[in-house]
Amino acid sequence: METQGIPYSGSHTSYSVRNLLWMSMHIGFKALAFIIYVIERSVNASFFGVFFAVSIISAIDFWIVKNLSGRFLVGMRWWNMVDEEGNTKWIFENRKNQASFYEAPNPVVKKFFWGVVIGFPGLWTLMALVNLLSMNFIWLTLNILVAALCWANLVGYFYCNRDSGSNVGFAQNFISDRVYQTITSGFTT
After folding, report:
1. How far apart are CA 37 and CA 171, in angstroms?
2. Which single residue of 20, 28, 116, 123 has CA 20 to 30 Å from 68?
3. Which residues of 147-167 are buried (b: 16+ CB within 10 A; e: fewer)?
4. CA 165 from chain center: how many Å?
5. What is the mean pLDDT of the chain?
């Protein structure tokens, strides 16, 4: 796996109406998926209806966070591609690589972004653990699906942040290294 940091241009405003829109979208779809899951589980709704609704909302959330809210709130975006030889190449865009155009994000916006990106994977992982311990495997599949989407964004943004030269903190870098080692060890053993 190869990584590459690519700067991109664009304007970034501090705490503004536009940021409020992106912050709302950043947490809105995640919260909606979780609320539907909790309410529908408590009223014993149809698994397939809940699975469909939560999966679609989580997929939309994944795309919005990966491609839009990260870019507009903290100046980062990531993706991967497969080259002609079949090798996966991870690409990370960040504004910090363009020092003359970089405007640091508002600290409140930055903390909000990272809090949501870190919090929801933990929340869905906790739900998966609860369903695993209660041997409720059908709901566990939904928890794993949504947690995987959340964790993918978390890991992508950790590496994007690390490649930008920014420091989110020792604990976050430690977590991202452990998650990466866990994921890659599963493929190499």
Report:
1. 30
2. 123
3. bebbbbbbbbbbbbbbbbeee
4. 19
5. 79
